[in-house]
Amino acid sequence: MPLPLAPITAFALRYGTVALATYALARSAELGRRDQRAEDALDDIPEGVTGRRDNEQMNATWRIRRVVRLGKTGPAVEIDASALGRVRLRRV
Description:
By secondary structure, the protein is α+β, with helices and mostly antiparallel strands. It has one domain (5-88). It has helices spanning 5-28, 36-43, and strands spanning 48-53, 57-69, 76-88.
């Protein structure tokens, strides 16, 4: 009984293309650097969502800190997610 290769080939081509694109993107991305000033700014953000609006720009911050534990006595992981945003509009 012959093996139906058409569905397997389509599957392999599709996921092979995705893998190749991901590999190419990973190779072309530059290694980022850690800026201590940015790290300190993210650490100073209060928990929750804040927003501020001036005449020239709008600023927003967001931070969530949670501890996730697997089971009652299992290992725990602290999640600390922060984001800064700024939108500037000016007439040219």
